[in-house]
From TrEMBL:
Domain Glycosyltransferase 2-like: 5-169
Classification via CDD domains: DPM1_like_bac (cd04187)
A Pfam family this chain is assigned to: Glycos_transf_2
Annotated source species: Liquorilactobacillus vini DSM 20605
Compartments, record wording: Membrane
Protein name per Swiss-Prot or TrEMBL: Glycosyltransferase
Residues that span the membrane, as ranges: 235-256, 268-292
Length: 312
């Protein structure tokens, strides 16, 4: 008998949470009948510092249903909520499924994930096969993002976000990655283990607003790039080398023209070089600064989240 815990991160999800809890419990009960699952299988909701009724809704569900919950002392972000949920779940569960609270990821597909698990997969990734619920901008930018990451050598599974099943062993392996700049979907392929995919249709949010406005989404993408690749620094190095070489050529050129008495008062060329090189330098410093900043954050070893309450 394997115990399944479904981990649900939630930030201000009062509009959907009651439905989500009912739906997940119903699905889990069906699964318990169909697969060799522990009847104690449950749901773990992580309240990521919500300011609405989210916590009250969970507390109420806890009294009558197999629902456990963690409450963060403030908002620590979606990725940290997932880590906390997986860590807590792995103390008692044999397998963990993570799914968003808004049910955009089809919870019915958990059955297929379980099937793959019982056939030997330790990680089963939910991969969406449509993007029509996204607006043109999100679709295009996300496409570019996956292509860019691939180009600089980060292996991501396109259209897989944080809907996945993991065995306890895979979760423990994942928890050994201690970095603070979290981009979970980038770490999963690094784990190895037998991995399978389940395709699903992503639907619009059941209710409520997206908790990922554009600025947060871009910050997340930037973390994905700079936490997994030092390609930007290498590009800087390349351009730095090129600029230095051009600098030497320019130096020789000016020297020779001066010696030959062909003094050219090239105002424009001077301006261009100052601006181009100045720009490149500032850009380079900015990118280097980003990596330095990341190092600063990592060496502090701050806790990734703080728990205010835990209802078992
Ligand atoms: N979420 C969270 N903390 C945050 C932001 C989001 O726990 O700081 C949760 C949110 O409640 C939801 C999931 O993460 O369950 C995904 O967020 P959302 O659906 O708003 O993102 P989108 O699907 O719009 O990208
Ligand atoms: Mg969503």
């Amino acid at each position: 008998m394997k115990k399944l815990t479904i981990v649900v991160p939630a930030l201000n999800e009062e509009a959907v949470l009651p439905t989500t809890i009912q739906r997940l419990i119903r699905i889990e009960q069906k699964l318990i009948k169909k697969y060799p699952l522990d009847p104690q299988s449950n749901i773990l909701i992580v309240d990521d510092g919500s300011s609405d009724q989210t916590w009250n809704i969970i507390k109420q569900a806890h009294q009558t249903q197999p629902v456990c919950e963690l409450k963060f002392s403030r908002n620590f972000g979606h990725q940290n909520a997932l880590v906390a949920g997986m860590k807590t779940a792995s103390q008692t569960a044999d397998l963990v499924v993570t799914i968003d609270a808004d049910l955009q990821d089809d919870p019915e597909k958990i059955a297929e994930m379980l099937k793959q698990f019982f056939q030997g997969a330790e990680i089963v990734l939910g991969v969406r096969n449509n993007r029509d619920t996204d607006q043109w901008f999100k679709r295009t930018s996300s496409n570019c993002f996956y292509k860019l990451l691939n180009l600089i050598g980060v292996k991501l599974i396109p259209n897989h976000a944080d809907f996945r099943l993991m065995s306890k062993r895979a979760v423990l392996a994942f928890l050994a990655y201690q970095e603070r700049n979290l981009f979970i979907r980038g770490l999963i392929p690094l784990l190895g283990f037998k991995t399978a995919k389940v395709y699903y249709r992503r639907t619009p949010r059941l209710a409520g607003q997206s908790k990922y406005p554009l600025a947060k989404m871009l910050a997340f993408a930037w973390d994905g790039i700079t936490s997994f690749s030092i390609a930007p620094v290498k590009i800087i190095l390349f351009f730095g080398g090129l600029a230095s070489f051009l600098g030497i050529v320019m130096f020789l050129y000016s020297l020779i023209t001066k010696l030959l008495g062909l003094t050219i008062h090239g105002w424009s060329s001077l301006m261009i070089s100052i601006w181009v090189l100045g720009g490149l330098q500032m850009l380079s410093l900015g990118i280097l600064g980003e990596y330095l900043g990341k190092i600063t954050l990592e060496v502090k070893h701050r806790p990734r989240y703080l728990i205010e309450a835990y209802l078992k």
